[in-house]
Design goal:
The complex is a heterodimer.
Chain A (H helix, E strand, L loop, with lengths): L4 H27 L8 H8 L2 H16 L3 H30 L9 H21 L2
Helix pairs in contact in A: 1-3, 4-5
Chain B lengths: L1 E2 L1 H8 L3 H8 L3 H8 L7 H11 L3 H4 E2 L2
Antiparallel strand pairs in B: 1-2
Helix pairs in contact in B: 2-3
Classes of the chains: A mainly alpha, B mainly alpha.
Chain lengths: ~130, ~60
């Protein structure tokens, strides 16, 4: 089944910003140690990966604005579910790290949690209105 | 809420996709309205009303 054009743009856009984010994180991680801690250059380098994150937010808003009222309801249900699950996991991970002394969990884990819970929420909502 | 959308659409020989195109929504939305799983917003209900040439209360009514 072919995706509608704006669905394809949404999908490709998401893949692109995630790849750009990961590439910039790799770049920042490899180049940062060569710069003085707290220097302007190092701060700029550390903030570079925020640009694709912002692009991801804009892409999502653009996508949501193009949906009809039921599709919007379904996506908002999914996104709110994914956001709350990700926030809960982040807080639990922080508690386990700071209070229980367990090792830090990679922040990338949140991507996975968000993706899985958002898609789960999407399919639940779609099923409800099928 | 019950509605007569499926009947009115069938009277005109339109598919769900035809109606969705005329309303500017997805086919899934038309299907959800027809099956009563989703109650449309007032603007969308008015669009249906205008499209079918009927008053809203003739198209939608309480269970």
């Amino acid at each position: 089944m072919a995706l509608p054009r704006f669905d394809r743009v949404h999908l490709i856009g998401n893949v692109l910003w995630i790849l750009a984010f990961l590439a910039l994180v790799m770049l920042a991680r490899t180049q940062a140690p060569a710069l003085a801690a707290g220097s302007r250059e190092r701060i700029v380098l550390a903030l570079l990966p925020a640009a694709p994150l912002l692009a991801g937010v804009l892409l999502e808003i653009r996508y949501l604005l193009r949906l009809d009222e039921l599709q919007l309801r379904i996506w908002l249900f999914a996104l709110i579910g994914g956001t709350y699950c990700s926030m809960s996991v982040a807080l639990v991970a922080w508690l386990l790290e700071s209070l229980a002394g367990l090792p830090r969990i990679a922040p990338y884990t949140l991507f996975l949690v968000f993706a899985v819970t958002t898609w789960l929420g999407y399919f639940v909502a779609r099923w409800r209105y099928r | 809420m019950k509605n007569q959308v499926r009947e009115r659409r069938a009277d005109r020989g339109w598919t769900q996709q035809d109606l969705a195109d005329k309303l500017g929504v997805s086919r899934q939305t038309v299907n959800a309205i027809e099956t009563g799983k989703y109650d449309p917003s007032l603007p969308l209900a008015f669009k249906l009303s205008v499209l079918f040439g009927e008053r809203i209360e003739a198209l939608f009514f309480p269970d």
